[in-house]
Amino acid sequence: MPEGDPGILCFQHCDIQHKVFCLELPDFCPKCDIPLTSVQLKIPPFQVPFPFTCARKAPNSVIIRPTDGDFLHFYQNAADLHIGITDSKGDVYEFDKFGLHIRAKNWTWSQCLSIPIVSESSSMWREYWDYTLIIVSQMSNWQAEKYKEDSNNCYSFVLTFLRMLQVKELKPSLTSKTQFCKDFIVPRTKNAAKYIALYRQVIKDGVTVISCA
Ligand SMILES: [Zn+2]
Q1: Measured in angstroms, how far is the CA atom of residue 23 from the centroid of ligand 1?
Q2: Residues 85 and 177 both lie in one domain
Q3: Is the CB of residue 87 less than 8 Å from the CB of residue 129?
Q4: Which InterPro entries does the entry link to (predicted)?
Q5: Distance between Cα 164 and ligand 1 center (Å)
Q6: Per residue in 45-54, pLDDT tens?
Q7: By the 8 A CB rule, do 41 and 28 touch?
Q8: Are residues 65 and 169 in the same domain?
Q9: Each residue of 74-112: pLDDT tens digit?
């Protein structure tokens, strides 16, 4: 199980209009009160895929996490996200008000969303990615005193890097932070938000029945 994965289970018993979510299988079906036996299950229990990963398992990626705390417990909306980049070893490069950091191992990135940017994954590509990352990191823009919350922030670092990669297909998405978020961030956070809402409901209610009609 990936780090932080609560292991939410899903099954359908007697009623295909409803899905049951839980952390531990109940003894009785919450819809019909009949003892659960796998024979009667319309869909046998499976684990709902955990959308988050650890930075170390997402090399050569753009990664995001809430500015404070983790996704499952602290995420509110996409407005308050921090963004960084991993190299081929999964080390995180990130820019904040304290300047640019390169973190080899850091618990703050143990539950993040990785954003697939390009499908290319050859060793030459990974070398090129790492090389470009080093070049961008050496720019003077990332000193702590140059940080500006609105105009020179974590997104500025990531967009500068992605522009420097010179990937033709990416170009239309790199015109602004807004465009980049629309094309790459929002689709991923939408999916994650569904999982987070489900997690919070299962924690609150225990066995949760959700209509799929
Ligand atoms: Zn039932």
Answers
A1: 18
A2: yes
A3: yes
A4: MKRN2OS-like (IPR032016), MKRN2OS-like_C (IPR053921), MKRN2OS-like_N (IPR053922)
A5: 56
A6: 999 999 999 9
A7: no
A8: yes
A9: 998 877 899 999 999 999 999 999 999 998 876 778 899
The string of pLDDT tens digits covering residues 112-171 is: 999 988 888 899 999 999 999 999 999 999 999 999 999 999 999 999 999 999 999 999
d(CA 192, ligand 1 centre) in Å: 29
Q: Who contacts 175 (Cβ-Cβ below 8 Å, separation ≥6)?
A: none
Expressed in angstroms and rounded, the spacing between residue 29 Cα and the centre of ligand 1 is 5
Task: Look at the block and give the residue holding tokens 């229990």.
Answer: 45
Q: Are residues 22 and 122 in the same domain?
A: no
Print the domain residue range for 114: 55-192
Nearest-5° Cα angle at 112, 107 to 114: 135
Considering the domain architecture, whether residues 41 and 87 belong to the same structural domain is answered as no
Q: Can you give the pLDDT at residue 54? A: 92
User: What spacing in Å lies between the alpha carbon of 48 and ligand 1's midpoint?
Assistant: 20
Please state the φ and ψ torsions of residue 203, each to the nearest 5 degrees: -65, -40
Asked, for residue 4, whether it belongs to a domain, the answer is no
